[in-house]
């Protein structure tokens, strides 16, 4: 398995979770009807970003964490993993908040499927964020870091591929043909 695969898995999970969380925030999260003396029966709908105002900021945070994951390394990436885990728990909490109201008795016309789908998408995004955070905490220190190719010569591992040695010699400004 490639060293980069877990990194790109985490990046993909977080980017997808951010998109799904934003989509969920645009769907109907709450719906109610009440009788008003002047207007009669009044239906009130609220999208996710109206009902749970933290949804969009969490989607932006998860997207920003993609950059943090790619730019950090070692123990700092593990700390980023903890932040990702906490964000995932926050998303799951928001998804579960108010789901009991959805499962109760409702008048005709209640969009139960849409409301359940909105909460379900948020829960799915939360699970993806949790999975990414778990990967980061468990294996984040072994994942490659942005710019790792440009580490100091002492930090580089010995190269065993002769073709690659030639290219690295060129990169460092040496003449690979002058070697003995």
From TrEMBL:
Transmembrane regions listed in the UniProt entry: 54-72, 79-96, 116-139
Alphabetic keyword roster: Membrane, Transmembrane, Transmembrane helix
Entry keyword Transmembrane helix: yes
Cited InterPro entries: Trp_biosyn_TM_oprn/chp (IPR019051)
Domain of life: Bacteria
Signal peptide residue numbers: none
Pfam families, alphabetized: Trp_oprn_chp
Region (Disordered): 149-180
Official protein name in the record: Membrane protein (TIGR02234 family)
Species: Kutzneria viridogrisea
